Amino acid sequence: MARIVAGKVGGRRIDVPRSGTRPTSERVREAVFGRLEHYGVVDDARVLDLCAGSGALGLEAASRGATDVTLVDSSRAAIKVCKRNARALKLRGVRAVAAKAATFLAGTAGAPVDLVLIDPPYDLDEAGLLAILEPLTRINDPWLAPGAVVVVERSARAPEPLWPAGLTCFSSRRYGETMIWFAEPAMNAEGA
């Protein structure tokens, strides 16, 4: 059992899938969202939570003021848990989609997002992670809004992600066995 750390439904418990997921710890979520709120990318944000598992990251964003949250996971069991959690918390603007992250990102973006949260299985190789990151940088039908932030969570034993052209890592933090990388569209880093 996990819980939402802060915001409208802070302290409320959420279910986690019985197997196949590794929910982000409350301590790490608290630290990550503290930084994201400092960057000003959570309130009224459009959010993608890729490899969502229980939906803990996306639901945390919704609790803290994100207005449009899409939870994406390839496991139908995980998506059932995401939907159940969103209903139980009565958070508006949250939807769950059963799809592989790269497949979902190959589709139409719609309105660009302000925040992308990626917490893939720790055994996902670098090429698999790059296949998720690359579509975020497309120019036509962009996924990322100006000023967007992309957060990648990996094992502290994993190397830094291979960032595609169009994404620049601007910060990283280690929390025990968890490593968090923060990236932004390269045009933000260049001041364009």
Describe this structure in words.
- The protein has 192 residues and is an alpha/beta fold.
- 30% of the residues lie in helices and 29% in strands.
- The protein has 6 helices and 9 strands.
- It has a 7-stranded mixed beta sheet with strand order 5-4-3-6-7-9-8.
Summarize the structure.
This protein has 192 residues and is α/β, with parallel strands linked by helices.
Write the layout of secondary structure elements.
Elements: E1 2-3, E2 13-14, H1 26-39, E3 46-50, H2 56-63, E4 68-73, H3 76-89, E5 94-98, H4 101-106, E6 113-118, H5 126-136, E7 144-155, E8 167-175, E9 178-185, H6 186-190
Parallel strand pairs: 3-4, 3-6, 4-5, 6-7
Antiparallel strand pairs: 1-2, 7-9, 8-9
Q: What amount of the residues lies in strands?
A: 25-35%
Question: How are strands sequenced across the largest beta sheet?
Answer: 5-4-3-6-7-9-8
Inertia-based shape: globular
Please give the number of β-strands: 9
Q: Average the pLDDT over all residues and give the rounded result.
A: 92
**If helices are DSSP runs of H or I spanning 4 or more residues, what is the number of helices?**
6
Helix residue percentage: 25-40%
**Sheet with the most strands, sense and barrel status:** 7 strands, mixed
